[in-house]
Specification:
single chain; alpha/beta; 7-stranded mixed β-sheet; disulfide bond; flavoprotein; 26 strands
């Protein structure tokens, strides 16, 4: 069935070239937000408008900054018994058929324009990443995997377990599904069990040690459902959603107050026109930041809440010297091994996960039909993260030459998939700093990947499991017998997946492989952590009428994928806040 050693040299050359293209398709497409958030049929939200239509001045009970994975369920919940303004800097996730379907995501990922649903940033570590800029947030841009946090995580955070479960269920009724498991994912599942990642827990949303099939936010027809769909729960008369509303500052009252009190926001519409929204009178009314792990600490600083030396350096008036804003930034490092396949593979996203007992999660994805459009869509060198053309060499001439070379490759080089590992936690942390006073620009962020030795050891242990799965009996049909693991490791390491220095023959050191091939799985968090920046009720310490509710409050990433928990948190806190309101 497999071709013999005589064709090894030819195939190796093809695969080295093809590896990079397939990794673009798989890692940048499957993991980097495969299929930007566009549902097939747009809900008719009477409360959703362009910010250009907003009055210059308005008043609400709650103002939520960020219509993302947490902001949407939070707004939908609060609208049941209050007036809510939800401000989203991006556009609507609905209405573009090119990115509705599971396999048609190449066109949008190639879009690096200012209006793209994804905003690229490069950490100071040299890892290329992205943040959401669309209603629905990261749930519009991820691999679709849906799984709850582990019970221990819920207990450690101090959440009410019963309300947590009710909130997860509330989310799942709209956006979560059981995925169909085909050949590649079945082989990964069986391989994990064969090498000892037991027991088999079947299909479940729960985080359980062993191997399981998780949920997905793609329905049976391959259409994405996102946090924006949770706005279907909203009370239309209680909610106003403004799109392309870029918040520039939270306003505080200081005079006559024991502590600074948030009372309004300044935002600009797509034409740059300034608008102001204020809280109505009432002690229960609040502004809530849900702008994500980069956006929320950035907005606090721009509004004068943060490290005073940094604020003064940007000529920002200090409202509250809060040195922990922007601290504790973490990103779960991801490392993958590409596996070229002698047989056709289905297009699959993250469906199966192996939850090990040493803190590493093993997942996989596959496909051979990621190319699309005149410039290869997802495989296009223009996309960037895994392009064959290094970032600093992407001139128009170099990109055109790379695309022309791709046209000569055989279809076989686009066939295969990868198995990846993501470490739990992580323990390593970094920080975020302002670059300027423009809220639309990315701040500077450092994650310090593998700074803590335990993180590095978890990566090494995870890679050993991946190697065993690739060599397992269950995976035989998806590997070439004459491509040993050292070749696969070196092929993967040769891809320009980040801006870090490369080392030769990294197959001799899994530690070096981890460091050289580190990528993001887009689960970064921190910057407004509980106990440092916010209290357990998510109120910002040292000021009144302001909370932060999103992944920036996390110390560790929950479960194998945080999106379910971030959506749950929006609902959970919405219920808690309304209870407080009704109790007077």
């Amino acid at each position: 069935m497999n071709r013999g050693p005589a064709s090894f040299q030819i195939m190796s050359k093809m695969l080295v070239c093809g590896l990079l293209r397939l990794l673009i398709a798989a890692l940048a497409g499957i993991l980097l937000f495969n299929g930007f958030c566009f549902s097939q049929t747009a809900p008719k939200y009477s409360f959703m408008h362009q910010a250009t239509s907003a009055p210059a001045l308005s008043y609400f009970d709650y103002i939520i900054i960020g219509g993302g994975t947490a902001g949407c369920p939070l707004a939908a919940t609060l609208s049941q018994n209050a007036t809510v303004l939800l401000l989203e800097r991006g556009g609507s996730p609905y209405g573009n058929p090119n990115i509705t379907n599971l396999g048609s995501f190449g066109q949008t990922l190639s879009d690096l324009s200012p209006s793209s649903p994804s905003q690229r940033f490069i950490s100071e570590d040299g890892v290329i990443s992205a943040r959401a800029r669309v209603l629905g947030g990261g749930s519009c841009l991820n691999a679709g995997f849906y799984t709850r946090a582990e019970t221990r995580y819920v207990n450690d955070v101090g959440w009410d377990g019963r309300l947590v479960n009710e909130s997860y269920t509330w989310v799942e009724k709209k956006v979560a599904f059981e995925p169909p498991i085909k050949q590649w994912q079945s082989a990964v599942r069986d391989g994990l069990l064969e090498v000892g990642v037991n027991p088999y827990n079947g299909f479940t949303y729960d985080h359980l040690p062993g191997t399981k099939v998780g949920g997905t936010i793609f329905d049976v027809d391959g259409h994405r459902h996102t946090a924006a769909d949770l706005l279907q729960y909203a009370n239309p008369s209680g909610l106003t959603v403004l799109l392309h509303a870029s918040v520039h500052k939270i306003l505080f009252r200081v005079k006559g107050k024991k502590r600074p009190t948030a009372h309004g926001v300044v935002f600009r519409d797509a034409f740059g026109k300034k608008h102001r929204a204020y809280l109505k009178r009432g002690t229960k009314n609040e502004i809530i930041l849900s702008a994500g792990a980069l956006g929320s600490p950035q907005m606090l600083m721009l509004s004068g809440v943060g490290p005073s030396d940094q604020l003064k350096a940007h000529n920002i008036k200090v409202v509250l010297d809060q040195p922990f804003v922007g601290q504790g930034m973490s990103d779960n490092p991801m490392n993958a091994i590409f596996v070229p396949s002698p047989n056709p593979v289905e297009v699959s996203l993250i469906q199966v996960v192996g939850i090990t007992n040493f803190g590493s999660y093993i997942e996989a994805a596959s496909g051979e039909n990621f190319a699309g459009g005149a410039d290869f869509g997802m495989l296009s060198p223009k996309i960037g993260q895994l392009s064959t053309v290094p970032p600093k060499q992407r001139t128009p001439e170099a990109l055109a030459k790379a695309i022309e070379a791709m046209e000569t490759l055989e279809p076989a080089v686009f066939r295969g998939g990868f198995i990846l590992e993501k470490i739990m936690g992580p323990l390593s942390t970094g920080h975020l700093e302002l670059k300027n006073k423009n809220p639309n620009d990315n701040p500077s962020v450092t994650f310090n990947y593998f700074k803590e030795p335990e993180d590095l050891q978890r990566c090494v242990n995870g890679l050993k499991i991946i190697e065993s799965v690739i060599e397992s009996k269950a995976f035989t049909q998806f590997r070439y017998d004459y491509l040993p693991l050292p070749v696969l490791l070196n092929m993967t390491a040769n891809a320009p997946i980040n801006l870090l220095p490369k080392h030769a023959n990294v197959s001799t050191s899994l530690e070096q492989f981890c460091k050289d091939t580190v990528m993001t799985i887009w689960h970064y968090h921190g910057g407004c952590q509980v106990g440092r920046v916010v209290a357990r009720d998510y109120r910002v310490l040292g000021v009144d009428a302001l909370r932060v509710i999103d992944g920036s409050t996390f110390k560790y990433s929950p479960g194998t994928n945080p999106q379910a928990t971030v959506m749950m948190l929006g609902r959970y806190m919405g219920v808690r806040i309304l209870r407080e309101r009704l109790q007077g």
